[in-house]
Amino acid sequence: MTNKTAKVLLHDASASPKKNRLDKLRSLFERAGFGRLISAGDRVAVKVHWGEPGNVGYLHPPYARTVVEMVRDAGGKPFVTDTNTLYVGMRRDAVDNLRAAALDGYTAETLGAPIIVADGLCGNDWRGVDVPDSLVGQAKIAAAIADADAMIVLTHVKSHMLFGFGGALKNLGMGCATPAGKQVLHSDLRPRVEPDKCHGDRICVRRCPERCIDMVDHNGRQVARIDQERCVGCGECTAACPHEAIPINWTTSPDRIFRKTAEYAWAAVQGKEGKVGYLNMMVTINPDCDCCDWNDVPFAPDLGMAASVDPVAIDAACMDILARAPAVPGSKAAGRDAADTIRAVYDVDYRQILGFAEKLGLGTSDYRLVKLA
Questions:
Q1: Are 183 and 197 in a shared domain?
Q2: How far apart are CA 28 and CA 165, in angstroms?
Q3: Rounded CA gap, 282 and 58, in Å?
Q4: Which residue, 59, 101, 160, 327, has fewest beta-carbon neighbours within 10 Å?
Q5: Phi-psi category of 227—alpha, beta or left, where left has phi over 0 and alpha has psi -120 to 50?
Q6: Which residues in the chain belong to E strands, given as ranges?
């Protein structure tokens, strides 16, 4: 990418009998020139997050099916893909991951394309990509994504407890990493339980992938305790605790996870110069990641969908749009005194990732927004 101003196309969320949201998605694909990114016979990864069962706020299959159809019309051979997870749930190996996808409606029949877990049965199928002058050294990128000829990154925009904002860069960086790669990305995080806030309900114990949380006595009642030596820093306990008893605790500077995620995002697109398009869907904008097996009230109204060939620009544009959006009554952002709606959910300096991605040459945060009718 160059340092020139990047174009970001935007459709609002409105729909009518003449043009529904899928029509608008097709329009974005065409107007953004994504068909020109694809050569005849290209194997095209459609990178999505199909959600954890129990969460009904994920990006629903018709959006992915529409992208699949557009890729095929452009001469490509699409497949829909995601990776295995670091945390406990239904997506930690490919067998359960595909079952989870099917439960959420992502099947070959509904999408019209194969579904591939990009890092294989146990998350060990990867390609090493060296990242110069980096914190991560060599990134472990899921093999099916690394081996694809082109990619469309279809992202459900949302909030996130660690990143503040979940967009294209997070979908690339965290979403294209193997479980071992995800552990590297989370390695600076070490949550600790605040015992006076703990209700002793063991929710965190059940969610911990490393089984490193046990119950101990604290002033005559049982509370959770995290074994810091065994903790891998996935943050699953922090996300799961309904009492905010496990705050984020960084062993180093919190900006390291942004830098490392940007490095993984850079690694995920190597060998695909001029072959990657980005679609950010600002619908059902949840306060937590689609990895959670629940979804709370969306914290902002549906704001539309954006397209660009620049992942930094599209995230910068969506951040600006979402930050100015009104908070939804009854949501985590409602009633909080914050000039920025994103930071009303989690007070995180989420724009850090843009600067790290720019330094790597992934794109520019200097964008021109083109609103489509």
A1: no
A2: 22
A3: 11
A4: 327
A5: beta
A6: 6-11, 43-47, 77-82, 115-117, 126-130, 138-142, 150-156, 158-160, 164-166, 213-218, 221-226, 276-282, 304-308, 367-371
282 φ/ψ angles, rounded to the nearest 5 degrees:
-95, 70
Residues 142, 77 share a domain? yes
Find tokens 């992208």 and name the residue: 67
* Region of poorest pLDDT, from 35-49, 234-248, 251-265: 234-248
Determine the 3-state secondary structure of 224 from DSSP. strand
The answer to whether residues 153 and 171 touch, using CB atoms and an 8 Å cutoff, is: yes
Q: What's the predicted TM-score (pTM) here? A: 0.90
Number of separate domains in the chain: 2
Written as one letter, the residue type at 311 is P
Instruction: Say if residues 278 and 314 touch (Cβ distance below 8 Å).
Output: yes
Domain span at residue 153? 6-187+260-371
Cα–Cα distance measured from residue 271 to residue 148, given in angstroms and rounded to the nearest whole number: 9
Can you name the residues that pair with 370 across neighbouring β-strands? 9
Q: Give residue-wise pLDDT tens across range 226-251.
A: 999 999 888 778 878 989 899 878 77
Cβ-in-10-Å burial (0-12, 13-18, 19+) of 49 comes to buried
